[in-house]
Amino acid sequence: MRLTTSALFLLALPGLALADPADCPATSDNQDISALLDTADSALDGADVEAFRKTIDRVAMDLPCMSESISTASAARLHALQGIQQYVSGEHDQATASFLAARTLNSAVALPGGLFPEGHEIHSAFGAGDVDAVQSLKVPGPKGQDLLIDGAATREKPLDRPFIGQLTDADGIAQTRYLGVGEAVIDYSVNPLTRLTSNGDRAKRLHLSLGAAALAGAVYGYQWKEFLEFQAVENATLEPDEAQGYRTQNIALLSTSSTLALVSVGIAFGARNVADE
């Protein structure tokens, strides 16, 4: 059965208005979410608008209460479901992004045929976008926690599609959020060892590194010159006190140049961004 245009737009919802994790009366898991998605699919196939609405409300309540990482299959189906909501409400660009997310996670994901038979215009939006061209950005890692994106442990935040973000800690899943295109990753304390630097900061560090290296080379060159002069005159004209002074000066210059060289290496290492490890 195919819904009429007026009935179709009854499905339009503002999106997944997710509950706050602190308000969860109980936890949910992938089996719960999968069962709800089955119910939603059945409602769409049967053109049961009221059942679909109630199911979406339940998904919005249960998703933030997950006690485990969401499965790839459930994440893909949920993205497809969100895409349907967006498409029928006229948000075609957002729908295309949600469909892209679904197809990126599961190439076999499909629209419910009962509501959207072959030839329906939504299939153009569903197939738009290249899953191999999805852009991402590496984000800093959380302190004392792990970041999951659509169920996978990664710090590669998708830039042109929505995703389900989760934080895990020693006790399990700490937070689950459905995040749209352009939304920030879940708020968390950043691990300073994975903090990213901008290209400008990286350039400044490289310049400092080169400056420190050049200064180290100049100091070492001067120390080597002084050392050769000392060697030439040590046994001929220097008194014991003068010789000791030369030795002390050379040791100090050598230590300075070595320190500057180490500083140069440290700055250069920082510039390459430890977050790439």
Biggest beta sheet attributes: 4 strands, antiparallel
Radius of gyration: 31 Å
Q: Please tell me what the overall shape is.
A: elongated
Helix coverage percent of residues? Answer: 40-55%
How many DSSP-defined strands? 6
Which structural category do the helix and sheet elements fall into?
alpha+beta
Secondary-structure element sequence? Answer: HHHHHHEEEEEEHH
Q: Major sheet: order of its strands?
A: 3-2-5-6
Q: How confident overall, as mean pLDDT?
A: 74
Strand content: 5-15%
Gap between N and C termini: 53 Å
Low-confidence stretches: 1-15, 273-277
Count up the domains. 2
Number of helical elements: 8
Overview of this protein structure:
This protein has 277 residues and is α+β, with helices and mostly antiparallel strands. It folds into 2 domains: 5-194, no CATH class; 199-276. Helix content is 50%, strand content 10%. It contains 8 helices and 6 strands. Strand 2 (146-149) and strand 3 (152-153) form a beta hairpin. The two termini are 53 Å apart.
Main features:
277 residues, alpha+beta, 2 domains, four-stranded antiparallel β-sheet, two-stranded antiparallel ribbon, 8 helices, disordered N terminus
